[in-house]
Amino acid sequence: MSHLPFKTWDIFCRVVDNYGDIGVCWRLARQLAHEYPFQVRLWVDEIAALSQIWPNVTAATQQFINGVDVRIWPESLAGIEPADVVVEAFACELPENYLAAMKHRPTPSHWFNLEYLSAEDWVEGCHGLFSMHPQLGLKKAFFFPGFSLKTGGLLKEGALQIERDSFQTDATNKASFFQDIGIEPHKNELIISLFGYENSAIGSLLDAWINSPIPILCLVPNSKILPDINRYLGESLISGDELIRGALRIKVIPFLSQTGYDRLLWVCDLNFVRGEDSFVRAQWAGSPLVWHIYPQEDDIHLVKLDAFLNSYLTNADPRLQIAIRTLWHDWNSGENCSQSWNDATAELQNWQKHSRNWCQHLNSLGDLASNMVQFCQKTL
Ligand code: TRH
Fold first, then answer.
1. Coil, strand or helix: which one is 371?
2. At residue 1, does pLDDT exceed 80?
3. Which numbered atom of ligand 1 lies nearest the CA of 294?
4. CB-based contacts of 201, cutoff 8 Å, min separation 6
5. Whether residue 118 has its Cβ less than 6 Å from ligand 1
């Protein structure tokens, strides 16, 4: 790969909110720096977001982390020589002087807009299309992650599956992970991780768990859903606290690094996830998941939710389809989830098998970073 005629990459990230924007960009940057002979710079406007998901990140304007040159995105990029490939994440808009510098290099930079993830049909038609900068005549490629071969695929490190499998099959690894997060699972507990936005459905879910016929261990990373949990239970749980109510044992754990969070997803029987990156990682875990999609105006996120469900459930048996669809809808519309939780978990074995099959299907799509590199090779 040392023959590739593009070696330097600039990835630009504006943190809109939460951790998904930086989560995706950081993952892409790390993979490109680690698996290719590339020099990668990541420009981020809010370094605090990165320090939440990765250890040892400081407030320095420039730092080298895991082979990536991480920079705080300054007000002006004047004097910065643009890279061979420039990735503008989620239409974060690059300054005109930097675009002009991209154009006026001996070979103009290859310019991507990395889009948000969606399973909607139109994505296939738009993936890989170009738009032309009206003044500079510089081409920008629209790169869409997705769930089919006609999209850019999903971020997945080359060693991800091997690491997951060896972690999942090694009892010592698992035990030391649980020890690190301060919990010892009991025999027969159904282990669930719960990461989500504020959600009025939480009370009904907690009720279902409290009254569950099987013991439940719920691991809650310290995040936006915690105040709702506390309100419903009349508690003020903070990171490290554990509470038992009926069949439910709930433990609040610290926010982990991205690597630690992957492991959390791998050790759980079922994962509640949200946004974009945790949603994708839960699919790579190969276990059942419930997605809290990022809410958008006029409920357009519900269209995206159904588009994903249609794709995800294509080969699932009809009972499982209904059970998952109903639970995801209830969770996303803040409706009572008790019944749909019970119905979905009655199908758990089936759901586990389905999750592994889905993961295999995703594996056949390649991965987003490699697809991006190949796209550059084809179009340069
Ligand atoms: O944080 P999110 O809700 O992020 C977003 C943003 O809101 C964004 O603006 C929006 O456009 C996008 O969703 C769709 O959810 P997400 O995408 O799952 O990102 C969370 C990141 O945090 C992900 O990289 C995983 C990481 N994480 C950890 O590293 N440790 C943890 O303990 C947890 C719970 C998450």
1. helix
2. no
3. 14
4. 330, 331, 333, 334, 335, 336, 337
5. no
Q: How far apart are the first and last CA of the chain?
A: 15
Closest residue by CA, ligand 1 atom 5: 20
CB half-sphere exposure, 267, CA atoms < 13 A: 25
- Neighbouring CB atoms inside 10 A of 380's CB total 12
**pTM score above 0.90:** yes
Angstrom CA distances, 208 to 227, 261, 276, 354, stand at 19, 25, 27, 23
Q: Which two tokens stand for residue 87?
A: 């990735």
Strands (DSSP E) contained in 231-332 are: 242-245, 248-253, 270-274, 289-292
Residue 8, H or E segment: strand 8-13
Chain position carrying tokens 């407030």: 59
Per the annotation, the verdict on 276 as an active-site residue is yes
Question: Which amino acid is it at 104?
Answer: H
Give me the chain's average pLDDT, please: 96
Q: Which residue(s) pair with 89 in the sheet?
A: 114
- DSSP code, position 293: P
Q: Which of 69, 276, 277, 367 is catalytic?
A: 276
Q: C-alpha dihedral over 60, 66, 71, 73, to 10 degrees?
A: -120
Instruction: Quote the CA–CA distance of 347 and 328 in Å, as a whole number.
Output: 14
Question: Does the structure show a pLDDT above 80 at 380?
Answer: no
List the strands of the sheet with 248-253, edge to edge: 242-245, 248-253, 216-221, 190-194, 270-274, 289-292
Give the model confidence (pLDDT) of 297-342 as tens digits.
Answer: 988 999 999 999 999 999 999 999 999 999 999 999 999 999 999 9
3-state secondary structure of 87: strand
- Summarize pLDDT for 212-240 with one digit per residue, the tens: 999 999 999 998 999 999 999 999 999 99
Mean pLDDT of 32-54: 98
Residue 287 near ligand 1, beta carbon < 6 Å: no
Beta strands 85-89 and 110-114, pairing class: parallel
Residue 354 phi, psi dihedral angles, 5° rounding? -60, -40
Q: What is the pLDDT of residues 343-362, one digit of tens each?
A: 999 999 999 999 999 999 99
Which of 13, 265, 278, 293 most suits a substitution to test ligand 1, by most atoms within 8 Å of the C-beta? 278
